[in-house]
Amino acid sequence: PQEKGSTFLQLGSSTEQQLQVIFEVLEEYDWTAFAVLTTLLPGHEDVVDYVEVLTDGSFIGWEHRGVLTLNLSDDDPDGSRLRRQLREISAQIRLLYCSREEAEAIFRAARDAGLTGPGYVWFLVGASFGGSDSLPE
């Protein structure tokens, strides 16, 4: 008997789709200066590469202010190194690719560093946030 093919239904949006929508929002609000922050979560290099594809081929004058790869290791128990790293980025628009657990530590450090108040816009990118009942504070 002939095997039937299977159909794969993707209910969540892909990271690429999320980035496309984020860049449409950035363009709509004329937020052209941004930075990309990632952790070592698998796929982080693909996210950085895709951001370059979206911005390099665009007629918008994007001001890519760099990529910061955050290393969330156990040798920074008080988060001082993470706060210092977060302050190195001058862009007020930040695209963050990380896991849900990492986001909690990153936003705690960002809040402690004064980087979450008015004037800062964070976009969370990745599949690990879909359907979350609550987001990091």
Automatic annotation (TrEMBL):
The keyword Membrane applies. Pfam families: ANF_receptor. Keywords: Membrane, Transmembrane, Transmembrane helix. The keyword Membrane applies. SUPFAM superfamilies: Periplasmic binding protein-like I. One of its GO terms (cellular component) is membrane. It is found in: Membrane. Residues 6-125 form the Receptor ligand binding region domain. This is NMDE4 protein. The gene is Grin2d_0.
